[in-house]
Amino acid sequence: MASGAFAEAGADLELVGIQKRFPGFTAIEHLDLSIPAGSFFALLGPSGCGKTTTLRLVAGLEEPTAGSILIGGADVTQQKAFQRPVNTVFQSYALFPHMTVLENVAFGLRRRKIADPVGKAHEALRLVELDHLAARKPQQLSGGQQQRVALARAIVNKPALLLLDEPLGALDLKLRRQMQLELKTIQEEVGLTFLHVTHDQEEAMTMADTIAVMNKGRIEQMGAPEPALRELPKTAFVANFLGQSNLFTGPVVGSTSTSITVDIAGHRVLVPADRAHRHAGEVTIGVRPEKMWLHRKAPVEAADRNVMGPGRVIDVSFSGVSTQYLVAVPYIGTLIVFAQNMAFGPVADVGDEVWLDWHVEHGFGLEDEPVPGAGPRFAADTDTRSIAAQRRESLVTELEEA
Ligand SMILES: Nc1ncnc2c1ncn2[C@@H]1O[C@H](COP(=O)(O)OP(=O)(O)O)[C@@H](O)[C@H]1O
Ligand SMILES: [Mg+2]
């Protein structure tokens, strides 16, 4: 793909103390965000958390209630949408049906009386590898191709900042994955700043250099997809929104320079001190399901492993390469374990008594204040509840009756 004249530098984006209130509803509480020029930045969060509102503020389609927006160091808060060096690609890519692909891309340039609109449109189409279809009408293209035309139409304006609002939402899974890789390649080639909004964590992980996880109008955590966000989630929301986690709450009952010991319903669990945000009092700690091991016999105690159990397998489900086990452990709750599928079939069946363990080094401790009275198995709120988060009492009762 040629970049040529389109390889114009991107610009920094800075949001400072942004708040957005709609009549009767605060969509954004307080947002500080700094996106370096030339980066691929993803804003990731569930539906309704304020992603589109954030983009509309940056694009100048909404006015912030408080705060300021800087693009390339210049304060654009008071600028009208058309004055900002920003282009947006929305989920529904409305192309003009009566115009050819080429004319769709050249349209904005013509209207703004930019020199050589046709040459520039061809160059943008070459970038998205669609120049050979320049003479077609949009309805003669597939969904993915139409989306690439929409992208070419945005890039042709050489925006310092490209805003993408769930632009792949209308595509089927295979096309989505393909377009994710293409978008990433295009961004690297043109060097523009991309602010990509999505509710799909896999999409964000695939494409972004940096991800900001947004929840209820706030950014909960920001960082590189790996290792920061996956390895060391700060909040229960992040721990369950990017993949799943087993979370537990209990008091810190001991600490050394290298680890803390937490009492989880009578189980002593160690977490490396440098992976725990809080070192005293009630804390919430966690471990990823893929880091846990299932055993049919009580594992021999070892200083570098945490053990829980015995518990009982209450569900086994295969999903291609791995098997997911739900294990109910009395007084703790239901834990989720992913095990790689070996040649031998399941390690355990429903009803089996099992123990779980994991390497101390794989645990993490959250910054979140534990919810008082929530019990040792920390249940995330309803929006983010993992499949494993269950009602503890009913399971304990169930086990006792079994
Ligand atoms: N014009 C508006 N008036 C009132 N509430 C709005 C308006 N636009 C968005 N909202 C509310 O703000 C919240 C965030 O919306 P939005 O930014 O579209 O979320 P997302 O894109 O993350 O799904 C939602 O609860 C939505 O209903
Ligand atoms: Mg939205």
TrEMBL record:
GO MF annotation list: ATP binding
Per UniProt, residues of the ABC transporter domain are 13-241
- At the top level, the lineage of the source is Bacteria
- InterPro entries with a match to the protein in the record: AAA+_ATPase, ABC_SmlMolc_Importer, ABC_transporter-like_ATP-bd, ABC_transporter-like_CS, Mo/tungstate-bd_C_term_dom, P-loop_NTPase, Transp-assoc_OB_typ2
Cite the entry's keywords alphabetically: ATP-binding, Nucleotide-binding, Transport
- What Pfam families does the record tag this protein with? ABC_tran, TOBE_2
- Annotated signal sequence is none
User: Per the record's keyword annotation, is ATP-binding included, yes or no?
Assistant: yes
The keyword Cytoplasm is annotated on this UniProt entry: no
Q: Which PANTHER family would you find in this protein's record?
A: SPERMIDINE/PUTRESCINE IMPORT ATP-BINDING PROTEIN POTA, SPERMIDINE_PUTRESCINE IMPORT ATP-BINDING PROTEIN POTA
Name under which the protein is recorded? ABC transporter ATP-binding protein
Organism of derivation? Cryobacterium breve
